[in-house]
Write a structure and sequence with these properties.
By secondary structure, this protein is α/β, with parallel strands linked by helices. The chain contains 14 helices and 22 strands. About 25% of the residues lie in helices and about 25% in strands. The structure holds S-adenosyl-L-homocysteine.
């Protein structure tokens, strides 16, 4: 029996040039008895392979390579699996651990495993084009060989919506030519056509090629298997052939004089930081009495629920003008609906979330709970709501002129709202205020509700989605 402990070294050797390989990556390859990798990767480190067993594999043999590494390590060998960039980024590190786990391996057992980090393609590409990644960014692979396209599209959409700088890996190959066209189409929903885009091919390798173009031009450019595409965010600009994403100093300092902007403090969160942004939202509502919380949600690009909580938190700062709000405690939606059914004439407003809103007037609506569904029944009108979608409910009032309850999903987006519409305003208001007082305080012990919500803090009716 061989008593030497086997070892698997997962080595990312950086973009491809010797100077950009780490010391540890070089040592790890030197230490190995066997080096396994794609033929192209093996070629990039060929100077380091003298006297070693070399296993070259094709593109589709990834799992085979993991199994081979494991088998050799079991014989007490030191095996280096090599990959360009960082081996944990769209690389072999994940499949290797999965193969090892499947074979019953655990850390500290017979085979030692070490992951050696390397500069990934997005670092290499960025360094050649200026400073495009100076703010929040994400990487998305356009390869649909192992990932369903709807998931890739969803991530592109989310990245676009959230204004991330986006690095596209595996943007295009001989067979996969339309993915980049789709990516462009999705990102153009959110980004200007002249958003800077860097197309970097073979960074730090012989055939290195860099194109600085715009999002509108991106899909027509020369892009291949060895290309990384960097797409700017809304702040990114191109100058003198470089692509720069500002770090955000301009939010705090005057870029000409260097002075701290009014209302900001050096070394502290921005006025619009976590602690204070809700005070800014209240001030915005105070400034102009015709502004509504829904407009504030659009203005601050925040969910309505966050604006309502900003209003509810008003404390000694002038509040949110005429607006006041309070959140319905935990699982009391049933109680709220029961109360609302007594309020006489109501307007029901249903948001589609896409800019369309349906408004209807109902007298004494009947609310029916039907499994997972809530139905609001009125003559010639029926509204059906998926209860698990409801995550929170709020009372919202503008002085005496507008009294409503808003039902939001767990992320704070509006599902529907009911507002008082009766002529007999006085008793309606009284009933509304009574419900407000009763339902926005923590529930008294021993109270049972129609639904069996597990906890107060949980979403209404116990659902979190
Ligand atoms: N583990 C690698 C990524 C492997 S996925 C890393 O961390 O970099 C393969 C993709 O990486 C390619 O399709 C290309 O998008 C990108 N890539 C790898 N090396 C590159 C290089 N030298 N220049 C530009 N892009 C590269």
């Amino acid at each position: 029996m061989n008593t030497r402990k086997g070892k698997i070294l997962l080595v990312g050797f950086g973009p491809g040039s010797a100077e950009h390989m780490t010391q540890r990556a070089r040592e790890a390859i030197a230490e190995a008895d066997t080096v396994i990798g794609y033929a192209t990767y093996i070629n990039l480190v060929r100077d380091l392979l003298d006297g070693k067993e070399v296993v070259r594999k094709g593109m589709t043999e990834e799992i085979d390579r993991c199994i081979e590494a494991w088998e050799r390590a079991r014989q007490g060998k030191t095996v280096a699996l090599v990959s360009s960039g960082d081996i944990g980024v769209y690389g072999m590190a994940g499949p290797t651990y999965e193969t090892l786990f499947a074979a019953g391996w655990e850390p500290g057992s017979d085979i030692e495993v070490e992951v050696i980090p390397g500069a990934t393609a997005l670092n290499a590409a960025a360094s050649l084009i200026g400073a495009p990644l100076t703010h929040d960014f994400c990487a998305i692979s356009l390869s649909d060989l192992l990932t369903p396209w709807p998931r890739i599209a969803r991530r592109l959409d989310a990245a676009g919506r959230a204004d991330f700088v986006v690095a596209l890996y595996n943007p295009k190959s001989g067979r996969r030519t339309q993915q980049i066209v789709e990516a462009q189409r999705i990102l153009l929903r959110y980004r200007k056509p002249d958003t800077p885009v860097a197309i970097v091919k073979s960074a730090y390798r012989q055939k290195q090629d860099i194109q600085l173009v715009t999002l509108k031009e991106m899909a027509e450019c020369k892009i291949g298997m060895l290309t990384t595409v960097l797409i700017g965010n809304s702040q990114t600009y191109a100058r003198h052939g470089l692509m720069i994403t500002p770090r955000g100093y301009g939010n705090k300092y005057d870029t000409e004089t260097g002075a701290v902007r009014e209302g900001e403090q050096a070394g502290r969160s921005l006025r619009m930081g976590l602690e204070n942004w809700k005070a800014c939202a209240r001030a915005w509502l105070r400034e102009d009495p015709i502004r509504t919380p829904e407009e504030a949600a659009r203005h601050f690009d925040a969910p309505l629920g966050e604006i309502l909580s900003a209003i509810a938190e008003s404390e000694g700062d002038g509040g949110a003008g005429a607006w006041s709000a309070a959140r319905v405690q935990g699982a009391r939606i049933d109680d709220l609906l029961e109360a609302a059914a007594q309020w006489g004439r109501l307007h029901a407003r249903v948001a589609s979330g896409t800019g369309a809103e349906c408004r209807l007037t109902v007298d004494n609506p009947v609310f029916l709970l039907d499994g997972d569904r809530l139905r609001l029944e009125a003559p010639q009108f029926s509204l059906e709501i998926e209860l698990p979608r409801l995550g929170q409910a709020w009372f919202l009032r503008r002085a005496e002129t507008e009294s409503a309850v808003h039902f939001l999903d767990a992320a704070g987006r509006k599902v529907f709202a009911l507002s008082l519409a009766g002529k007999d305003k006085h008793w309606q208001q009284q009933a509304y205020v009574h419900a407000w007082q009763a339902l926005t305080k923590p529930r008294a012990a021993g109270f049972t509700s129609l639904s069996n919500a597990p906890s107060e803090e949980n979403a209404l009716n116990g659902a979190t989605q």
